[in-house]
Amino acid sequence: MNTHNMYNLWNDARYIVGKHRGWYHDLTYRFELHPAVVECLKKDYRPHNWHLMLLEWPHRAETDANRLAYTRDERAGLDNRQTVTSIGKYLMRHYNGILSDNYIRDLVARYTSGDDTFEFLHTTDEMIHAVNNGPSSCMCWHEGKGTGCADGVRRHPYAVYTPEYGWHMAVRKTSAGEIVGRALCMSDPDSGDQYWVRSYKRCEGYSHTDEFLESWLTAAGYRKKSAYDSDTKLSLIWVSRDSEVLMPYIDGGRQSAEIDYSSGVLRLRSDGVISGSETCGYASIDENSETCEDCGDRVHADDICCVGENEDRYVCQCCRDDHYNYAISRRGEHYYIPNDDVVYVESTSEAYHVDYMERNGIVELANGDYEHTDNAVYVEREDEWYSDQDTDIVYCEHSGEYELIDNCEQLHDGDWAHKHDCWQCEGSGDWYLNDVEPVTIDGELYHPDNAPQTEESKGE
Fold it and tell me: 182 φ, ψ to 5°?
């Protein structure tokens, strides 16, 4: 026996028990094990007493397919007498504390829908038919009714839910083909995430959540979310060119959209300027909105920013924050300048427009960094700027300029060696160029005028 899987264990054990109990052998061949129990066993959920549950052989009740029947004991088995109970009550008796209440609730919903069938719809026409002929909602429109679009075609608002963007619909049907439950679903083409936001169940008046359909979706690997993901695509269908677009009532917490002009689609956005909370089938583009010249999105006029040295380019706040830097530009004024045209100076904690660096006292150092001239020195012999904190730079009293203490030159064998440009007098502390010959005393360099007298020089 394979004891690592409860379902396989049961299949092996039922034959052993059936050899010794004729009533049990007949029972297990007359009735299939209840599918809710099969699901638990295949997931290897072990009941408190699996031997007892095996002997009870739970199955669908003959009198009511939405209930469960089981054989209570040996006497009941010999009398061919089964006890009928609810699926949830039976599972709680054997799995209390093992399975969560939510999981048992979903199992009950999944296996108490009678003869109903479930399926996915993958075309726009099928989805619109299900909306118009299924559970009641604000998007149930009479056949033939539609919103007149700019191209002269009348369309149902659900026409924006284009299947190629991942939109489809799950429905629950009766044996007669009547649609009694539906849920608009999304299968994200990029992430593969599969989910739904709201389900509708046919009932008197307002449509409630269809727990049967939602349980079926969960078993199919879908999950329920509070809103459709940001940037989810809808088809852009104009009702009145440049002012109104086709738009259904959007379920969930993200009920607005933005026009993505670069892709020619609508994208669901929490801060979009096109409302998806109306039931008329179309939405107006906010008259107080403007188009970002960088990304093409429309945003409220209050959220448009002026950038550039002339402040003549209009972009949204996101583009401004991502692609521009608040930098010192002409006349020492601050403007939002494209990142590629800006340098940052750490000592001043400021950014500067590259076209106006010199006017604002910014120079490029020999090492490629940038610095303000107040904190830099110019070495004319090198034609380079250096930080005034650079310990290799000194003021040379001899030349009256800043000089590099030493430099490097490449030797013929490819090695590098230091080439001294100036030296320091040990007596005065002043620096001199190499064309001034120093006096060496006890290994130290001195200017001839500052050299200490030796015994030899005293004798002279």
Answer: -155, 155
Q: What is the pLDDT of residues 29-62, one digit of tens each?
A: 899 899 899 989 988 999 999 999 999 999 988 8
pTM: 0.51
Q: Measuring CA to CA, which residue among 398, 388, 391 is closest to residue 425?
A: 398
